[in-house]
Task: structure prediction
Amino acid sequence: MPVIDLLPADVRASDPHTTRHPLSCRHAQAPQLSPSTTRSHSFHELLCVMSGTAQVAVEDRTWHLSTVRLLWIPAGVQRELRPSADALTFPLLFQPDECPITWDSPQSIRSTGALTHLVRVLLQPSMTSSQQYARAAEQAFEVIPRLRELDLELTMPRDPRAVRIAHELLSNPAATTSLEEWGRIGFTSAKTLQRLFVAETGLTFPEWRTVVRIRKAIDMLCEGASVTMVANRVGYSTPSGFIAAFSRITGHTPARYIREMTNRQ
Result:
């Protein structure tokens, strides 16, 4: 059975008659969200993003989440959550001894209409009967494994010179800035930047950029965008070039990949 706990202990224990209502605060006086938080749970966690985006770092890997990509985090795994300024995230927690999902490492989960509905039910237990709630949990356990995505998560570089480039590509996958141009901007050489990417991510710069583009393309395709539009938005001059890159990374054409994802829902 999922365990939902959205309020810290000091808030739950406070006297509602003596606690000032948060909406009575001026914005400057209101509590501020931390830009990141690091923790682990004794529960399995499905990290859900209801708006905005978020990054989750586990050791040297980073997952980029959105309303169409969630992350399953096994119990005991320490993760760092870095939400965007406009993000609204919720952890949906599951007792390990009551959960049939046994992954021992984080898994990227494609969000669909059906899964989103189940998540909303599980996040609001007081809005449904105990029988309906239990059924929603059972259905979630059935659906989540079928929506596990191809592992396209990226290892982030650590050197500040390469980190700057990585963040620019993540925010704008269509960027065409070459390593030589990046080198001039950062007062270093293209050869040094290439070495940093290979040493710290295991991929060359072009390979790393291609994975970034294909991940963004999958999000757009799942939202119904055409291949031509997606190709243009992620930096390819022709649909054929995009299809070739997509097929090389995923093993499928865009149309077949989306069709198989749809059939698994």
